[in-house]
C-alpha cells in the first residue's frame, strides 16, 4: 500500500513554461512534506518543504502547494530551465513517526 | 567542505556472499540512514542510527545489518547477498530527525547480486 503516490512517471515541459509535479498521499497523519531532486548517478538533494500548518511555500522559482482536504501537494517550477531536468521525489512524515515515506518519483524533461 | 561519501560505487557479487557498503560523513551529524532505491518504489529505509551505538530497523531491514562505532561511519552489511538485494543503495545524514529536516545523501552504491 503506497502511502505517497506520484502517479506520473514522467513529464515533458517546454523550456520557459511552468512545470507542475503532483503528489498524493493517503495517511492523514502526515504533517510534513518535502521535495527532493535527483540527477543521474547522484544522490537526491533537498529542494523545498512544507508543514501542514501552511498551504504554500515558495523558494525562488519553486513553489509547493498543499491541499490537506484533498491530500494532495504539487511542486510548481516557473520558469522551467534545462537544468531542472531530473527525477523529483515527494516525501512525507508524521510527527509521531519521524520516518520519511517516499513516492516513486517523476522524471521531468525540459525541452529546449 | 563537508561531505558524505559511499564506497564502492559499483559492486558485483554472487549469491550468498557477505557484502559491506561503506558510508562516511564529515558533517558531524548524529543521524545517519541507509536507503535502497528500486524502480517503482522510490526510496525505502533499511536501517538508521541517531548516534554512536544506536541502530534501528527501517521498513526493509531483513537481510541487512548496520553498526555505529563512531559519528562519521555507518557501514551496511548484507550477511548473505540475495538477488532481491540488487539495487542502488543511498546513505544519508542529517542533524535533525529524518522526517523534519534536510537529508544529505551520498552518490549511491549500485549493487548487483548474481
Report on this structure:
The complex is a heterodimer of chains A (112) and B (114). With 112 residues, chain A is mostly beta strands. Chain A is built from no helices and eleven strands. Chain A has strands at residues 4-5, 10-14, 19-25, 30-38, 45-51, 56-59, 62-67, 72-77, 86-94, 97-102, 106-111. In chain A, strands 2, 4, 5, 9, 10 and 11 form a six-stranded mixed sheet that branches. In chain A, strands 1-3-8-7-6 form a five-stranded antiparallel sheet, with no helix packed on it. The radius of gyration of chain A is 13 Å and the shape is globular. Chain A starts with a strand and ends with a strand. Chain B contains no helices and eleven strands. In chain B, the strands form two sheets. In chain B, strands 2, 4, 5, 6, 9, 10 and 11 form a seven-stranded mixed sheet that branches. The mean pLDDT of chain B is 94. Chain B has strands at 4-7, 10-13, 19-25, 31-38, 42-51, 54-57, 64-66, 76-78, 87-94, 104-105, 109-113. By secondary structure, chain B is an all-beta fold. Chain B is globular, with a radius of gyration of 13 Å. Classes of the chains: A mainly beta (112), B mainly beta (114). At the A-B interface, strand 4, strand 5, strand 9 and strand 10 of A face strand 5 and strand 10 of B.
Measured distance between first and last alpha carbons of chain A: 38 Å
Kindly name the structural category of chain A. mainly beta
Shape of chain B: globular
Assembly type of the chains comes to: heterodimer
E-strand count of chain B: 11
Q: Pairing-aware structural class of the strands and helices of chain B?
A: mainly beta
Continuous helix count of chain A: 0
Rounded radius of gyration of chain A (Å): 13 Å
Mean pLDDT of chain A: 94
Our count of helices of chain B gives 0
Low-confidence stretches of chain A: none
Total beta strand runs of chain A: 11
Sequence of secondary-structure elements of chain A: EEEEEEEEEEE
| Biggest sheet architecture of chain A | 6 strands, mixed
Q: Averaged pLDDT of chain B, please?
A: 94
Helix-residue proportion of chain B: under 10%
User: What are the segments of chain B in which pLDDT stays under 50 over at least 5 consecutive residues?
Assistant: none
State the end-to-end CA separation of chain B: 37 Å
- The fraction of residues in strands of chain B falls at over 45%
Q: What's the helical proportion of residues of chain A?
A: under 10%
